[in-house]
Write a structure and sequence with these properties.
heterodimer; A: alpha+beta; 3 strands; 18% strand; globular; B: globular
Chain lengths: 88, 377
């Protein structure tokens, strides 16, 4: 799983925002913002991961949460990205 | 999470203001234009063309601003599509990770330009129109054929599903058919939007700009004509977009209900406190900046001084220098205590343009505010 080309994650004025770089077919009505934890997952997905399990590992390393919660959160995040067409 | 554009900008602005982050920038890429409107304070001044920056220079400035936190950029002119290097600048700016708005007069939009806008969509394209007939365009811009070109430009955008916003400028010449202009804008499914302030000239471009400025009484008459035209149009065609607007309002209000987190609250308070004690109530020089056609950084398009040369000074230093200069601009005490200040919104840049001083009230603006009040009664 990997974030589509043509998207840039930026931290600006206290917000993590996703900016389309142009020459892409991603249509977003509004601006996509991410929480701090979602931004961490996004950065992993920019490199490419094999499965949501890898994302759960990252969340567990960063936050004091149990694996079940981490799996649920990362799975939900991936689904949301997929629904918006942001993953390859 | 996808937030409405305006709610997100508001929240980011608190943070940007409190931390002096140049969140939004306006880039006046050129003073050249294919039209010759009588109220234009800058277009086609001979000295301007000699000072234009290259694409590399623009992108260097934008990169520095981006690295300091710029997210939103407006590309304006003059008319940006007359530039040979516009697409180099624009696509380069997009690759920096910016949300970009483009201003145009619409007459220069060709099929090729429209195709490029499909491929590289701006977050907003704003088209300013100057009439509703060939005669109207000839009166304002010097070219009757520009009316046909403007319509063709809009047609090309419509065919490709490119979103745009229309607006106009209220002047002596445009006010002749302001009702028709209003209805033309509405016929494209838009809301009427217009600028009604003509500032004194910036460059010597041969225009007697102030001769196009409406008196407060004339502006009030024109405003009534606009309202009448809107009513007539909706009486005839119905009011479009009500359902869409209702959905937008629901989303907007829902987003506004998301409480500020403690850090955002703190930034909001810092931002408000700053504004109470400075002459500028807007974000000019705080989280917004303007770069003129010759690479000089100033706080907004209405205020060309103070300014710093970005070709000689790094962006961060220039922005900080400008910020300090803005804080030293004196407040107009008459305006601060004026009962009409909420109708007038006294802008120090306008005061300076009108009187040569930041702290002196301007009779023209005072009369305008009184006229606006009478209109509301």
């Amino acid at each position: 799983m990997k974030i589509k080309d043509g998207l840039m994650l930026r931290e600006v004025a206290g917000q993590w925002v996703v900016v389309p770089l142009g020459d892409n077919v991603i249509e977003i009505n509004g601006i996509v913002t991410l929480s701090a934890s979602a931004a961490i997952l996004w950065k992993e997905l920019e490199k490419g991961v094999d499965s949501p399990d890898s994302l759960a590992d990252v969340l567990c390393a960063e936050y004091a949460i149990d694996r079940e919660t981490a799996l649920a959160d990362s799975g939900e995040f991936v689904k949301e990205l997929e629904s918006k067409g942001l993953l390859e | 999470m996808i937030q409405t554009f305006q709610v997100l900008i508001d929240r980011m602005t608190y943070h940007a203001d409190a931390n002096r982050i140049p969140l939004t920038g306006s880039f006046e890429l050129t003073a050249r234009c294919n039209l010759h409107c009588g109220m234009c304070f800058i277009c086609n001044a001979p000295e301007a063309r000699k000072s234009e920056l290259s694409a590399a220079q623009w992108l260097d400035i934008m990169t520095q601003a981006r690295d300091e936190g710029m997210l939103f950029a407006l590309l304006t002119g003059g008319e940006v599509f007359v530039l040979d290097n516009f697409w180099d600048i624009y696509t380069g700016a997009k690759r920096l990770g910016l949300y970009i708005t483009i201003n145009s007069n619409g007459t220069t939009i060709t099929p090729e330009i429209a195709d490029m806008l499909v491929r590289y969509p701006p977050v907003r394209l704003t088209i300013t129109i100057y009439g509703a007939s060939e005669e109207g365009y000839r009166r304002v811009t010097g070219s009757g054929d520009a009316y046909r070109k403007m319509l063709r430009g809009l047609e090309l955008l419509e065919e490709r599903g490119i979103e745009y916003r229309l607006r106009t400028t209220l002047t002596k010449d445009t006010s002749v058919e302001i009702g028709e202009i209003t209805k033309l804008i509405l016929s494209y499914g838009q809301q009427m939007s217009y600028t009604n302030y003509i500032m004194p000239g910036v460059l010597d471009n041969g225009n007697d700009v102030l001769s196009q400025r409406l008196s407060p009484e004339e502006a009030a008459i024109a405003t009534k004509q606009i309202h009448r035209a809107i009513q007539e149009y909706y009486d005839e065609h119905g009011r479009p977009g009500v359902e869409e607007y209702r959905r937008f309002l629901e989303k907007y209000n829902a987003d506004r209900q998301i409480p500020l987190d403690p850090e955002q609250e703190r930034m909001h308070k810092i931002s408000l406190d700053r504004r109470k004690n400075t002459a500028f109530y807007c974000q000019a020089g705080r989280s917004h900046f303007w770069v003129s056609y010759n690479g000089r950084l100033s706080i907004c398009g209405l205020s060309r001084e103070p300014s710093v040369d970005l070709l000689k000074t790094p962006f961060r230093s220039a922005f900080d220098e400008l910020g300090k200069a803005v804080e030293e601009i004196p407040l107009c005490e008459d305006c601060k205590s004026c009962e009409h200040r909420y109708v007038c919104s006294p802008c120090p840049a306008k005061l300076y343009g009108e009187t040569g001083r930041y702290d002196q009230k301007a009779e023209y603006l005072c009369s305008f505010a009184e006229s606006n009040l009478m209109l509301r009664e």
